[in-house]
Amino acid sequence: MNPYAIILADDHAMFREGIRRIIERIEDLAIICEVNDGLELLDVLKGSRPDLVILDISMPNLRGLEAIREVKKTYPKVKVLVLTMHKKREFIQQALRDGADGFLLKEDAGGELIRAVQTIRSGGKYLSSLLSGVLTSIALEREEPEILTRREKEVLKLVAEGKKTKEIAEALYISPNTVRRHRSNVMEKLKIKRLADLVKYAISQNYILDQG
């Protein structure tokens, strides 16, 4: 059985060396190439098809977020693990929206890197334990447009604004029973059992703002 092939993209050679040492302790994992930036990564991918790319967000030329989009668009079967020092929500959110299969902080790398690689290898998603709260909500948000209908999202927005069932019905020109049915469907799809938790979820996902 061939080892799980990995390309490492980071512009710090010493950091790449440290990551290589961690990964190559595991017999069936292999770093097949190291690159300095996103453009070099895309060039290498033309002739080499890894199972996984581990990349940083901050790289010269083509930055990490742009590289994720290009990799996923051109090579959708290649998995991508972001390994970075950046903790800002917008970076995490964009990486996940662009198709990243995992997001790990560099400060976690020693203890969690192999776990992250193996989780992604087995078909799962991996989110840094240091960012679990933020990342869980982002992951739900990323999946949500695929599972909620337009009307369900409209109801959720009004729930976030504190509207009662009758007010939602009047705003959307539907019956209160229909509002209750949509709200129940949303809660079932999001695996939320209490209305109070649904309100908290809606607020955390910025439904109090216009969702477009």
Write the layout of secondary structure elements.
Layout lengths: L3 E6 L3 H11 L5 E7 L2 H8 L6 E4 L8 H11 L4 E6 L4 H9 L4 E4 L3 H13 L4 E2 L4 H16 L2 H11 L4 H8 L3 H14 L5 H10 L8
Parallel strand pairs: 1-2, 1-3, 3-4, 4-5, 5-6
Describe the model.
This protein is of the alpha/beta class and 212 residues long. The chain folds into 2 domains: 4-141, Response regulator (Rossmann fold), CATH 3.40.50; 148-204, Winged helix-like DNA-binding domain superfamily/Winged helix DNA-binding domain (Arc Repressor Mutant, subunit A, Orthogonal Bundle). Helix content is 52%, strand content 14%. The chain contains 10 helices and 6 strands; from the N terminus they run E-H-E-H-E-H-E-H-E-H-E-H-H-H-H-H. It has helices spanning 13-23, 38-45, 64-74, 89-97, 109-121, 132-147, 150-160, 165-172, 176-189, 195-204; strands spanning 4-9, 29-35, 52-55, 79-84, 102-105, 126-127. It has a 6-stranded parallel sheet, with helices on both faces. The longest helix is centred in the middle third of the chain and has 16 residues, at 132-147.
Features of this protein?
single chain; 212 residues; alpha/beta; Rossmann fold; Arc Repressor Mutant, subunit A; 2 domains; six-stranded parallel sheet; 10 helices; 6 strands; 52% helix; 14% strand
